[in-house]
Amino acid sequence: MRQVWITKTGGPDVLEVREAPDPVPAYGEVRIRVQRAGINFADIMARLGLYPDAPKLPAVVGYEVAGTIDMVGADVEDFKPGDEVLAFTRFGGYSDMVCVPALQALKRPAGMSADEGAALPVNYITAYQMLVASGRVGPGDRVLIHQAAGGVGLAALDICRIFGAETYGTASAGKHDFLRERGLGHPIDYRNRDFAEEIMLLTTGKGVNLALDPVGGESWRKSWEVLAPAGRLIMFGFSSMAQEERSLRRVVQGLLSTPWFKFNPLNLMNTNKGIIGVNVGHLWHETAMLRGWMEEVLRWYGEGKIRPCVDRVFPLAEAGAAHQYIQDRKNIGKVLLSC
Fold first, then answer.
1. CA–CA distance, 328 with 306 (Å, rounded to integer)
2. According to a count of CB atoms within 10 Å of the terminal CB, is the N or C end of the chain lower?
């Protein structure tokens, strides 16, 4: 099989395609001939040496794939060779063949392409956890979505539409027309306007009920400040630290700009606000919970309520270019690897 390895920390050029023996499914596992593998920002952070949960380098990363089962291990009854599936992978997804526990694989609904299948797991489960499981979004809630044109942002837009929430989203101006078509109520050009000031103007001083923020640092402070009473800030990343090369100074600056003093218990009580942290990568042991969330997402897909958006598909050998494309914030939606 072929895999993309992160050979060491650094820029996209440290990614390298290597050959490895074909894996054999263990007890309770299935083997998938991968057609598409999803790329997530955590993969870029791992390449930069800024993702503490990443395996020790050199390593193969990747959290999600879509393809066809070609072999099943002992005691697997729900799958057979030929089944078209999507699956969560605890690393190893940048491969043209993977073995995963059967519980981490789900059959793709009729009509779902491999592109859509690989675009669903991480983005939609992250958005589901933030908005449904933790955020308890409801009709009329005002939701601020940072990086609204990214994979998680577009997934969040779909879910907000299902629940009848009003949406505000940050994105560069060139992406606003597309986002309006996807249902974003209030696009905000974060490059030329202060998003916190814009939120307070657009909400006539009321603020938002939920703020989904993967940026970190100063952005967390501003997102916190625009929360309405009983509002919740949901933190699910620290993309502001992702630069071409790892910089200790950049990391320290990011940490120092984080408003820790606002997040202490007394201030939480006095302001009637909440903070929620989300990291799907730390929920791998909660297989039943993740599977339940994913099954609901697949039901929504079958009902036509969600639309996974794939921006570009790069060949496996061009994984470095795919990373650079995401890091340059060129993507609108999901970026995938073709295996």
1. 26
2. N
Distance CA 168, CA 165 (A): 10
Q: Which residues contact 326 (CB under 8 A, 6 or more apart)?
A: 39, 41, 44, 335
Q: What is the dihedral of CA 333, 240, 89, 315, to 10 degrees?
A: 50
> Is there a contact between 143 and 208 (Cβ–Cβ < 8 Å)?
yes
User: What is the spatial distance between Cα 164 and Cα 45, in angstroms, rounded to a whole number?
Assistant: 34
Over the stretch 106-137, which tens digit does the pLDDT of each residue have?
A: 999 999 999 999 999 999 999 999 999 999 99
Asked whether the bond before 58 is cis by omega within 30 degrees of 0, the reply is yes
For helices 287-302 and 121-128, the axis angle rounded to 10 degrees is 100
Residue 152, H or E segment: helix 151-163
Residues 6 or more apart in contact with residue 145 via CB below 8 angstroms = 153, 156, 157, 160, 167, 168, 169, 170, 184, 212
pLDDT of residue 241: 60
- The low-confidence residues of the chain, meaning pLDDT below 70, are 240-258, 260-261
| Residue type (1 letter), 116 | E
Residue 332 and residue 308: Cα distance in Å, rounded?
11
Please write the tens of the pLDDT for every residue from 185-244. 999 999 999 999 999 999 999 999 999 999 988 999 999 999 999 999 999 987 766 554
